[in-house]
Amino acid sequence: MRWQGTLLLAASAAALPALWAFVTTPLSAGPQLVLGLTLLGAALLLDRRRGAVATRMLAVCSVAVSLRYLYWRVTRTFEFDSPAAAVCGALLLGAELYAFAVLMLGFFQTVQPFGRHPTPLPKDPARWPTVDVFIPTYNEPRSVVRPTVLAALALDWPRDRLRVHLLDDGRRPAFRAFAAAAGARYVTRPDNLHAKAGNLNHALGVTDGELVAVFDCDHVATRSFLQLTAGWFLRDERLALVQTPHHFYNADPIERNTRQFRRVPNEGELFYGLIQPGNDFWNASFFCGSCAVLRRSALVEVGGIQTESITEDALTALRLQRRGWSTAYLSIRQAAGLATDTLAAHVTQRIRWAQGMVQILRVDNPLGGRGLGLAQRLCYLNAILHFLYAVPRLVFLAAPLAYLLFGLHICHTAAPVLLAYVLPHLVFARLANARQTGRFRYAFWDQVYETILAFYILVPTLTALLRPRAGVFKVTDKGATIEHGGLDRRLAWPYAAMLVALAVGLAVGAARLLATGGDDVGTVLVNAAWSAGSIVVLGAALCVAWEQPQRRATYRVAMQLRAMVTAPSGHTRSANLLDLSLGGCLLRLGDGIAVEPGDRVTVGLFAGEREHALRGNVVAAAGATLRVSFGELPLDEEARLVEVLFGRPDAWLDWDRRRAPDHPLASFATVVATGLGAIGRVAAAERRIAASATAVVAIAGAVSLLAQTGFHLQPLFDRLAQLPGAVLEQAALDSPPSQSGP
Amino acid sequence: MTTIAVLSIKGGVGRTTVAANLAVALAGGGDRVVAVDVDPRDQLALHLGLSPGGSPFGFASAALDGGLGGHTLERGAGRVGVLRFGAVGPRRRGALERCLAERPRLLRELLDELGTSVRYAVVDAAVGPSPWFHQALASCDLALVVATPDAACFATLPSLRAALDAGGRPAATRVLLNLADPGRRLARDVHALLGATFGDELLPITIHCDEALREALASQRPILTAAPSSQAADDFRRLADWTARFDGGRDAALRAVDAQPRGAR
Ligand SMILES: Nc1ncnc2c1ncn2[C@@H]1O[C@H](COP(=O)(O)OP(=O)(O)O)[C@@H](O)[C@H]1O
Ligand SMILES: [Mg+2]
């Protein structure tokens, strides 16, 4: 290992001058384009090869190409003819540098994702650690909490070494009664100080198990959860945490409203599929608040769950690691939860995450302080920096407006040169990034995810940066129903406003083209294309803000299981389960059976060697399919249902198995279709607003046209005739440089 | 030939039902199967679509004659060859009991006469302990004990153990739960107790309580043809599959069953 490292260092040292030359040698548009195309060709060839080596080579090439672009950007294009342009130009360059920094950190963070396996436990269960399961709740409905508690009670673990605690900050009598009936301990405290962190800390004080497993009250564990996670604590005495993925079995608002549930990886999958395994390689995986096991002694050493950030989990992990404790991440879905239902709830939740993570930057900056290795610092830094995307994202969205609306030249170069530099940079970054993230994040969707939230996390993150102690923990709503779908105007207006602004920009740009002839055609076209891209992404954001109705309070999980049904007459049918939820199931029978809606039937579900019987009422019987609703189940039947639905160790393992691998062009097409489709739908539904917006765009274009031609329209028509020639001329690469937008 | 004796300690648990339907399910796989009734109540033929008292020849006369004597077997439902118990008067019955006591594996000898083209013999072995019961037990390769999930049946389990031990345990014993009804708590509890008592000897397959089985008997048809898409039919198909696997590699099957992780934690 050591000599390899030395060799690598030597090679890098030798390569540095070459890299320097590559980065700094200026080229005019033509040669730069040739260079760019050549490199791209090489990259595409490289991309055809499988394996980590090719991935890393691509990353290195991408970094080199991007450095060359940025060097050129800083040394050649950072020149302005007005203060306003300087401000806008600095913002744009800043955003680009941020994106580059995050990309670099991302490459580093995920250079070698660690596919950790479970460690077997000793044969003798008497040597297994004692475990306290904490289920904190505050105001969630009982229907959400019940399955979580029942599943925790059903964990495969020696009864005398497992205690389940329902930590009810809502102090609700019905919860106390339920806990008693189910066999869980019920814990309350006199105050609600420090919200969830305080709740967990209080429970730490009244329990004594060696390990503490934490489940948010809507995260239902499989029964193998502890068996798979606890082994590592015995193997590594300095291990403080084993985190597992947060998996959601319902569609989050983005998945539902774009109709991409289980087709396009959702926002969280990149983090749990790639980033956390990447962190794990650097011993920097962090606590995500739920679906995790912690070592009590380690927690106690750092004073329990930390309370100085509203993302107490990440800060706790950071503090543990500063004290020399290790953390682990096991990328096996061993619990399933409910994603937020509405975009509003999603936004609220993400504001909290963003705010909390930024708080950590101020409260306990991972770059400073003791106890962390450089890699750990960088991993934590990237986790935090990620949430600062609001400003850069908004800058990228709005950048073309600087030129189109105000005529500001924020990037001092000619369009062809710009393209010759920026395209290789973008395409390389995309390719290299896709190599690493392709399975967990499809191309272009990251822009959609960020655009949706950028408007909303902007102020909270900046506030947290300036006044880190001002955050408030807000419990995320779960299990809501959306009776009537439709556009959530409260959330959608910033998307729409920005979209209209860009449309105005396009109109004004077109007017400029007409008025000034072909001089600026390249610049206008570049900015127009960019605006079009922004518009599509904003359209996708509108699509997400258009809530699809969601009437079901329980989510049906498609599930293949052998089943049977017994009619009131005592006749049975063997059957196959098609879907199952906490509320009922759909069966396909071997043959029709004489039942009517309303009939009471018993459904048998065969899970492995276990057979579970649940009673319910027939909702619909059509031919050989039968829908049964369980209604209120007695506690023991509910526990059995939870076991079948959530308990099986492999319940969620191949959730994404049937997903197609990412094809960037297909993703592009999907995003464009989503965006444009949503714009059309919103325009049709909000006729008055759409009409006003169209009028604004038309008037702005007309006024700008008239103003620029000084109300002399004759020259305009002459220029119109010359325009095609001018376009061709401008497209020629050796055109004289002129100032232009980015 | 693999001989499967279906036994019980108590009447009315569905022993004959199981024997008849297992025989039909096994025959559905294309193998030649015979069903033999060694229970003087002579119900098996009825379950297999043959008229009661339709033929005087049966196990009883064959045993007394010391051989099949060239008689061909009747053909029951599902092309199962049937050797019913047959008519036997009170005097001859005493002789039969003595004869069985003298030759504990007489049944086996009769079955061997059928030749190797018969793949399975399913024996309705009567309530034990009794001469019939012991005859079947001593002649079989697999003893299938039928139990039902009720307190009365559970109470007979100690005597079942004693009876099995007294009869000289066959190569393999499995307990099959009939009338399974996991919707009822008591049924679930007794099932769990059976699991705790018999461990891996309790079959993972159960025969569910199914009205169609009663109706099938009323129309003298096996469940597989009377109600093929019922759960009970599915259960018998699974039982036949299991039996075939057991037969396919008796040791291997035993080992696989032993290695299977038990459902209980
Ligand atoms: N799984 C079952 N579901 C419903 N009825 C059954 C089932 N098994 C057996 N029976 C019924 O129980 C009764 C007794 O069965 P039988 O096979 O004659 O028992 P045994 O031979 O043990 O005395 C019969 O009417 C039969 O149809
Ligand atoms: Mg009988």
Description of the structure:
The complex is a heterodimer of chains A (742) and B (265). Chain A contains 24 helices and 17 strands. With 742 residues, chain A is an alpha+beta fold. Among the domains of chain A are: 125-339, Spore Coat Polysaccharide Biosynthesis Protein SpsA, Chain A (Alpha-Beta Complex); 557-633, Beta Barrel (Thrombin, subunit H), CATH 2.40.10. Chain A has a 7-stranded mixed β-sheet, sandwiched between helices. In chain A, strands 12-13-14-17-16-15 form a 6-stranded antiparallel beta barrel. Chain A has a two-stranded antiparallel sheet with strand order 5-9. By secondary structure, chain B is α/β, with parallel strands linked by helices. Chain B has one domain: Rossmann fold. Chain B has helices spanning 15-28, 44-47, 59-65, 90-102, 106-113, 131-139, 151-155, 157-166, 185-198, 211-218, 223-226, 231-248, 250-259, and strands at residues 2-8, 33-37, 74-75, 81-83, 120-127, 142-147, 172-180, 202-208. Chain B has an 8-stranded mixed β-sheet, with helices on both faces. In chain B, strand 3 and strand 4 (81-83) form a beta hairpin. Chain B is globular. Chains A and B meet through strand 13 and strand 16 of A and strand 8 and helix 12 of B. The complex binds adenosine-5'-diphosphate and magnesium ion. Adenosine-5'-diphosphate (ADP) is lined by residues 8, 11-17, 43, 178-179, 207, 209-210, 213-214, 217, 232 of chain B.
